[in-house]
């Protein structure tokens, strides 16, 4: 994937947001209503009042600015800016357009030149054309190598001799002066040779001569066997000899571009530049303070160096023996982790050096193996990240093997320059540029993640992607408390690479916000404080009090503790872990309980809510159905009153018709006589008319009776309260009675027919026995029906009596409240009913005294029969009398016979 130069700053974390804050993307432009941008975007990361260079003495001594015991390091990472001078050629090309201006010691102002991309976007109102950056210190083009060394690396060398670990790395666009800054050119030696010279001057007379102690892995030391020592000596001598041979052959060597590995020049101008230096030529004043006054008394020092590069994400040992003999078979190195998970370069060559000269020669030998190539920007461009490490072994002579050993390290990393991939015309260069930008991008992401974690301690930490590139993996320790790091940003003031320079500065702006990670010493101090604290079980950590003085322990390293103390520390830490785990479990249990109780509350609330809703709905439904019932009752009442009215009208119509007929019937008397057939016809018609009239009279009488009964019923229906209920019950009973009577009537008719047929049979003297049986059965049925009738009559009498009582009560109530208008009763339309109501009590008494069959109500139940059922009374001739009814009458005149005797009587008769 081809990455553009801007990618190192394009980290996916929150620095994008901050960049957006730094560099607003809205502006009023071309009449569009955009908010106006400030003229300058202030990319100023170091404006908060955190200590930076305060208390330099303390910071130099320990590498930390301690804010009380147990507090973490808050010293910002140092980010220096170095501006290289323009060359003559560049000036002639018109590259000097004043786009880089130093405002003060720590502030830089960038102004976009006309042709730059930034200016184009600024003209469109998307970004600003001016940017302000802050740095720990800015070094202009006039700064000499010595001045730069004094301000940056000098203190680092001192720190390393004090036992600290330090990293310095250069970052910038290609051809911006990174290699120049680190290694120098000609007599202008860079930081590294100066640091080496300074180191050995300080260690004069304190060097450990033997080669039997060697740094291995992450920061361990191994005691070498004599045979191994010999191998080490041979390796060292061969490297030094090789350098001497090459130096002697140097005269007349041309810069043959592609004679090195993979088409890269290994013996290029850069090597010759260093060779020109010949020896470590340092100004006398730079090393004026050469004495090792700060060094611990009695400690001897052994210096070992290594030099490797990361090229296309592969690690190559630049001090590998005789690489020139097998130029195309470079062995790649692997990264490994030690038991504590610290990364280290496996099988890396470490060479012991005893002087600055030797170190210089080793560096020079390594430079020959480094990957350089000519690019469009730099003829001798570093195509790899080169890492030169100096390990200082602090050896206490009186101590046993390795026990009092301490290691400190100074690492100088010359990063490959960031550049635009698209501008590389060579495929190999393009691939290199990709890899360079990828690793730089990862470095940017790591720095951004570290910065995020430091600034957002309350939030979960972001994973720092150290493992995403080899570069960040090998430098990881310096960002995680193993030591401190400093960054040198190199820029080229050429207008043509303004956009790249801007991106590099934005990248560095993130780094300026970093503070150093908590030192491993802080962790040691924490462990030691645990050892000193009571452990809770009465076993107090006393080992340290016996072993170490407190001040020594505070500044000491974990390797200073003996095995017993370390074991005790492990025990204490285990107990601490256990305690914290238990605390967390209790906390979790509490949280769970709280959650459960809250959930229960919620559930109870929901239950209550549902019950209320249910009640409300039930009440609503009840109300609705009550309304429906009321409506139904109302409609029924209306319907039945309508029915009654219609029937009244029919009766009236019939009466009127009858009257008419009557009038019409009286007319024929005046007709002439003499016409016999017509008279007989008239007579027949008159007979029929009489018959009809009789029938009509009978109907009228019946209708009248029914009307009265209906009116009475209506009145009873209108009686409020329990009377209505009783009336309903009475109605039901009446209906039942009517049904029974209807059935009875049918049975009687059937029996009458049977009797007729029996009479006929008797006359013919056939089937006598059968007839007798039939008569017996008929007699039994009659007895039963009589009983039923009597029961029904009694029930009806009771119901009527009850109704009358209620009516009387109501009438009394009405009488006691004469002033109130009659509301529950409508005025009777017939005088009969009025009379009845006016003397209700008397009427009811009268009705009660009457025999049941005489009552009009009962009459209505038997419309086809005459109410003549009387015991011991005279017979009355009635029309339509059936044989059975005659028999029944004859039986009813005498007291009711027993079911046994009646058949005999009947048998006697027939
Ligand atoms: N401060 C300076 N004073 C004088 N010359 C300088 C300075 N900085 C850089 N130069 C010159 O600029 C040129 C490029 O420098 P250098 O090779 O160090 O760039 P670089 O950033 O390492 O490039 P690359 O990333 O491609 O390796 C060299 O010729 C060097 O001598």
TrEMBL record:
GO terms for biological process: heart development; microtubule-based movement; mitotic spindle assembly; spindle elongation. ATP binds at residues 172-179. Residues 245-265, 659-682, 810-910 are annotated as: Disordered. One of its GO terms (cellular component) is nucleus. Residues 563-594 form a coiled coil. Residues 901-910 have a biased composition (Low complexity). GO terms for molecular function: ATP binding; microtubule binding; plus-end-directed microtubule motor activity. Its main location: cytoplasm. SMART domains: KISc (SM00129). Keywords: ATP-binding, Coiled coil, Cytoplasm, Cytoskeleton, Microtubule, Motor protein, Nucleotide-binding, Phosphoprotein. Belongs to the TRAFAC class myosin-kinesin ATPase superfamily. Kinesin family. This is Kinesin-like protein. It comes from Lates calcarifer.
């Amino acid at each position: 994937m081809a990455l553009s130069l801007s990618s190192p700053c394009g980290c996916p974390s929150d620095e994008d947001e901050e960049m957006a804050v730094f560099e607003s993307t809205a502006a009023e432009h071309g009449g569009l209503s955009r908010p106006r941008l400030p003229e300058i975007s202030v990319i100023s990361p170091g404006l908060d009042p955190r200590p930076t260079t305060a208390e330099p003495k303390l910071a130099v001594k320990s590498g930390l600015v301690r804010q009380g015991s147990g507090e973490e390091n808050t010293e910002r990472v140092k980010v220096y800016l170095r501006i290289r001078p323009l060359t003559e050629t560049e000036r002639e090309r018109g590259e000097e357009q004043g786009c880089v201006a130093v405002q003060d010691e720590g502030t830089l102002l960038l102004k976009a030149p006309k042709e730059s991309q930034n200016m184009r976007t600024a003209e469109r109102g998307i970004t600003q054309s001016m940017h302000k950056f802050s740095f720990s210190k800015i070094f202009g083009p006039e700064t000499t190598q010595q001045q730069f060394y004094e301000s940056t690396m000098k203190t680092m060398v001192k720190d390393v001799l004090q036992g600290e670990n330090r990293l310095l790395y250069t970052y910038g666009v290609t051809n911006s002066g990174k290699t120049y800054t680190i290694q120098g050119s000609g007599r202008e030696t860079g930081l590294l040779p100066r640091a080496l010279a300074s180191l050995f001057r300080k260690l004069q007379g304190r060097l450990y001569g033997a080669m039997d102690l060697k740094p291995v892995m992450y920061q361990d030391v191994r005691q070498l066997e004599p045979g191994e020592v010999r191998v080490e000596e041979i390796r060292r001598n061969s490297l030094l000899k090789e350098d001497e041979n090459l130096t002697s052959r140097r005269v007349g060597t041309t810069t043959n571009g592609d004679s090195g590995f993979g088409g890269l020049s290994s013996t290029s101008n850069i090597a010759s530049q260093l060779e020109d230096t010949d020896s470590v030529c340092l100004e006398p004043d730079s090393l004026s303070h050469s004495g090792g006054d700060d060094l611990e008394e009695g400690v001897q020092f052994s210096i070992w160096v290594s030099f490797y590069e990361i090229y296309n994400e592969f690690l190559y040992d630049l001090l590998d023996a005789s690489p020139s003999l097998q130029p195309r078979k470079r062995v790649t190195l692997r990264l490994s982790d030690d038991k504590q998970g610290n990364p280290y370069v496996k099988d890396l060559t470490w060479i012991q050096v005893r002087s600055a000269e030797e170190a210089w020669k080793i560096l020079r030998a390594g430079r020959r193996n480094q990957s350089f190539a000519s690019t469009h920007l730099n003829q001798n461009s570093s195509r790899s990240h080169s890492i030169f490490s100096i390990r200082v072994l602090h050896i206490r002579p009186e101590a046993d093997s390795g026990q009092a050993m301490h290691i400190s390290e100074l690492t100088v990393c010359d990063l490959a320059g960031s550049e635009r991939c698209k501008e590389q015309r060579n495929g190999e260069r393009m691939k290199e540029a990709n890899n360079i930008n990828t690793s730089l991008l990862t470095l940017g992401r790591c720095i951004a993640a570290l910065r995020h974690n430091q600034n957002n301690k309350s939030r979960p930490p972001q994973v720092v992607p150290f493992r995403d590139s080899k570069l960040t993996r090998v430098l990881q320790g310096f960002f995680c408390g193993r030591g401190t790091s400093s960054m040198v940003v190199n820029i080229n003031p050429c207008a043509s690479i303004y956009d790249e320079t801007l991106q590099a500065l934005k990248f560095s702006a993130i780094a300026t916000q970093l503070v150093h990670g908590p030192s491993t010493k802080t962790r040691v101090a924490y462990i030691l404080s645990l050892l000193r604290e009571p452990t809770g079980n009465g076993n107090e950590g006393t080992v340290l009090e016996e072993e170490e003085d407190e001040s020594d322990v505070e500044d000491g390293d974990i390797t200073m503790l003996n095995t017993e103390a370390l074991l005790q520390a492990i025990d204490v830490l285990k107990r601490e872990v256990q305690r914290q785990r238990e605390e967390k479990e209790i906390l979790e249990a509490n949280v769970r309980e709280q959650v459960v109780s809250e959930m229960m509350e919620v559930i109870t609330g929901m239950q209550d809510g549902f019950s209320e809703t249910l009640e409300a709905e039930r009440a609503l439904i009840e109300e609705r159905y009550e309304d429906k019932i009321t409506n139904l009752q109302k409609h029924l009442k209306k319907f039945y009153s309508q029915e009654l009215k219609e029937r009244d009208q029919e009766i009236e119509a019939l009466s009127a018709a009858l009257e008419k007929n009557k009038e019409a019937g009286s007319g024929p008397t005046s007709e002439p006589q003499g016409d016999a057939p017509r008279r007989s016809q008239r007579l027949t018609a008159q007979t029929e008319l009489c018959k009809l009239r009789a029938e009509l009279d009978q109907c009228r009488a019946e209708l009248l009776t029914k009307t009265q009964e209906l009116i009475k019923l209506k009145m009873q229906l209108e009686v409020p309260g329990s009377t209505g209920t009783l009336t309903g019950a009475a109605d039901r009973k009446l209906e039942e009675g009517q049904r029974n009577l209807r059935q009875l009537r049918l049975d009687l008719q059937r029996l009458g027919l049977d009797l007729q047929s029996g009479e006929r049979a008797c006359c013919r003297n056939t089937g006598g026995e059968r007839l007798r049986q039939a008569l017996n059965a008929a007699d039994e049925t009659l007895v039963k029906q009589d009983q039923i009738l009597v029961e029904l009559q009694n029930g009806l009498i009771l119901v009527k009596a009850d109704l009358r009582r209620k009516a009387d009560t109501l009438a009394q109530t009405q009488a006691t409240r004469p002033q109130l208008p009659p509301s529950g009763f409508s005025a009777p339309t017939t005088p009969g009913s009025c009379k009845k109501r006016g003397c209700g009590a008397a009427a009811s008494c009268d009705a009660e005294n009457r025999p049941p069959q005489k009552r009009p109500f009962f009459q209505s139940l038997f419309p086809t029969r005459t109410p003549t059922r009387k015991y011991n009374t005279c017979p009355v001739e009635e029309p339509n009398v059936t044989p059975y009814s005659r028999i029944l009458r004859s039986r009813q005149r005498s007291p009711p016979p027993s079911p046994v005797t009646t058949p005999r009587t009947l048998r006697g008769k027939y």
